[in-house]
Write a structure and sequence with these properties.
The chain is mainly α and 303 residues long. It has a domain at 51-261: f41 fragment of flagellin, N-terminal domain (Up-down Bundle), CATH 1.20.1330. Helix content is 67%, strand content 6%. It has 8 helices and 6 strands; from the N terminus they run αααββββββααααα. The protein has helices at 7-34, 45-99, 107-128, 185-189, 196-209, 218-265, 269-293, 298-302; strands spanning 131-132, 135-136, 148-149, 160-161, 170-174, 177-180. A two-stranded antiparallel sheet has the order 1-2. It is rod-shaped. It starts with 6 loop residues before the first helix and ends with a helix.
């Protein structure tokens, strides 16, 4: 025996189909207005999970880029400071060569040269206390205390490079990429552990201020300090290049990850509009057919 289709069944099915059509239209409308394929996890759990993974990766990349930018800023500042140290040392060497030429300089001239070298030594101390964002760049991890200073127990004492911190400052700029961003001040200003470059300059000043015209090894010691400075700058330059390459790699990784996230979440607007128009046409057809299905009642004829 066949199943009897009543008018109530027709009406109910028509309303159910219209409701499904309305839900489809709402879906495409939300996609167009939000620009996203899904607006809630239940729309597509797999897409939501993959999108969260890509967003987490982008957050990590953003932090690595921030670390790399901060590190590169300090490395650039450090290189500028070392370049200034190099200029000071070159000037000191020129003055030392001139001052040790006793045949053309009397004692007053040597006094004047000694005074200029002494001023350059003070300037070297200012460079040793260079800062970035309130942090001393040649103090190892002891970034809050000036490395070139008086004896804390005797404020009237002569300033010296007193920092002994040899801990590197390192930043993570990738999951397995850690780069040292500082140059140890002890390696630059006190590499021999006996006063370093400041002791060499003090000895030159003392020699020029004395009447002693004997042979000295001041130029050899200056050259040793300048060679050491060149070595430290070379190592810093290599690490700076590595940091710049890391930044370039992070930029590329950010672009590719953003593209994957967009492909996963962003809706094709033109396709969504086509789908919406299609559903609108279906709705109009359904309403037109529904108007024919719904039977007229006796009241319609009594109007």
């Amino acid at each position: 025996m066949g199943f009897r289709v009543t008018q109530s069944i027709l009406n109910r099915n028509m309303l159910m189909n219209l409701q499904q059509n309305n839900r489809a239209m709402e879906k495409y409308q939300n996609q167009i207005t939000s620009g996203k394929k899904v607006t809630k996890p239940s729309d597509n759990p797999v897409t939501v999970v993959r999108g969260m993974t890509f967003r987490s990766s982008l957050n990590e990349i953003e932090q690595y880029k921030s670390n790399a930018d901060d590190g590169l800023a300090q490395m650039t500042t450090t290189d500028d400071a070392l370049n200034e140290v190099s200029s000071v040392m070159q000037r000191v060497r020129e003055l030392t060569v001139k001052g040790l030429n006793y045949g053309t300089n009397d004692q007053n001239a040597r006094y004047a040269i000694a005074e200029e070298i002494n001023k350059l030594k003070e300037h070297l101390g200012e460079i040793a206390n260079s800062q970035i964002a309130g942090k001393y760049i040649f103090a190892g991890t002891d970034i809050k205390n000036p490395p070139y200073t008086n004896d804390p127990l005797d404020p009237s004492s002569q300033k010296e490079f007193r920092n002994t911190n040899n801990e590197p400052l390192e930043l993570q700029v990738g999951q397995t990429n850690i780069v040292q961003i500082n140059v140890l001040g002890t390696n630059v200003f006190n590499n021999d552990g006996n006063g370093g470059v400041f002791k060499v300059l003090s000895d030159i000043v003392d020699h020029l201020n004395s009447a002693d015209e004997g042979n000295s090894d001041h130029l050899a010691k200056l050259d040793t300090q300048m060679d050491n400075l060149l070595k430290e700058r070379s190592e810093l330059g290599a690490r700076t290049n590595r940091m710049e390459l890391s930044i370039s790699r992070l930029d590329g990784l950010e672009v590719s990850t953003t593209g994957l996230l967009s492909k996963e979440e962003d809706v094709d607007i033109s396709q969504a509009i086509i789908n919406l128009k299609s559903q609108e046409n279906v709705q109009r057809a359904a309403l037109s057919v529904g108007a024919r299905i719904i039977q007229t009642s006796l009241l319609d004829f009594l109007r």
